[in-house]
Amino acid sequence: MNTVSYKAYEQLAPATKAQPLVTVVIPFFNEAEVLATCHARVCMALSNLHQHCEILYIDDGSQDNSWSLVSQFSHPLHQVRCLRLSRNFGKEAAMSAGMTAASGRCVILLDADLQDPPEYIPEMVKAWEAGAQVVEMQRQERHGEGWLKRTTAHCFYRFMSHVSDHPITENVGDFRLMDQKVVAVINTLPERTRFMKGLLAWPGFTRTILSFDRDARLAGTTKWNYPKLIHLALEGITSFSTKPLRWATMAGLATSFITFVMAIVIFTKTLVWGDAVAGYPSTILIILFLGGIQLLSIGVLGEYVGRLFIESKQRPLYVLMDDAMQKPTFQSMET
Ligand code: UDP
Ligand code: MG
């Protein structure tokens, strides 16, 4: 942990007599319609644990009145804290901010829109107390999501578990419990491209999988759209695997081999039977085919070079808005 981040952490984590049993990290962006219900349901779920807990809201640059709502939330038994990012940095950065500031003995990531039912929290904590350091919540049913989203999500998970160098459990999103040890490891991962499903799976540790039915959104609309999801998928693939580079090499090798075989066939036909070279369409097809393979390979290479460029800038992942001082607090991710 470096000095900058430690100072920032001291500002964030108020001294408490007892370390909270669990920190529930809730990132949100323009969720004014659901926050009150979310808070009530999380508090109700935590009351079943009969221990001091922490609820940590991360405002990811909301433009509605979400912030004024959460900053009024409190609870007689549990510690309620709110962080505000200086703009919309994306859910991944908001979750990272929450995990860095969390002070509980374990951390649960939860969506504010109540698609991940807080009522599962006691069951997750029970699994953790039984020895699991990571409790992954696997979606069985996905209510309120169209077949296109379900199918593309399913294909993406299958594809990712195939290309990723580290196993990513299928149909497990961000909703999960992690021991503070696991969270500390994730907080040390410095990359700017935060493909959370990969980062959360990277440390390993002992795992338990629990099943749950994902509810429909309580209100409001999803913040995701297909261009964003394609971007996320590309980020996930290029930040967690170098296999596409290998595929580009293999495609190059395969086309070279096919070209070599074709050259022998054409030469033989011309020399032995005196056949003229078959004409225009095949030549054009071959040129286009090779051009396509070359552009694809350059594109794949470009994706990785782009990642290097972003990583080399070493910008902070998020900036905290310090309301009291009216100036942003820079928080390094190297904690
Ligand atoms: N979210 C966020 N920042 C963003 C987008 C989303 O903090 O830039 C939050 C959002 O408020 C919600 C959670 O991330 O609490 C999941 O977002 P959403 O429901 O839009 O995604 P989906 O469940 O459709 O995948
Ligand atoms: Mg949602």
UniProtKB/TrEMBL annotation:
- Where found, per UniProt? Cell membrane
What membrane topology does the annotation report for this chain? Multi-pass membrane protein
Q: Which UniProt keywords apply?
A: Cell membrane, Glycosyltransferase, Membrane, Transferase, Transmembrane, Transmembrane helix
Pfam families to which the protein is assigned, alphabetical: Glycos_transf_2
GO terms of molecular function: glycosyltransferase activity
- Keyword rRNA processing in the entry? The reply is no
Q: Per its UniProt record, what InterPro entries does this chain match?
A: Glyco_trans_2-like, Glycosyltransferase_2, Nucleotide-diphossugar_trans
Instruction: Give the Glycosyltransferase 2-like domain ranges.
Output: 23-183
Q: Which GO terms describe its cellular component?
A: plasma membrane
SUPFAM superfamilies given in the database record: Nucleotide-diphospho-sugar transferases (SSF53448)
Carries keyword Glycosyltransferase?
yes
Q: Where are the membrane-spanning stretches?
A: 247-268, 280-305
The record's similarity note reads:
Belongs to the glycosyltransferase 2 family. GtrB subfamily.
Name of protein: Glycosyltransferase family 2 protein
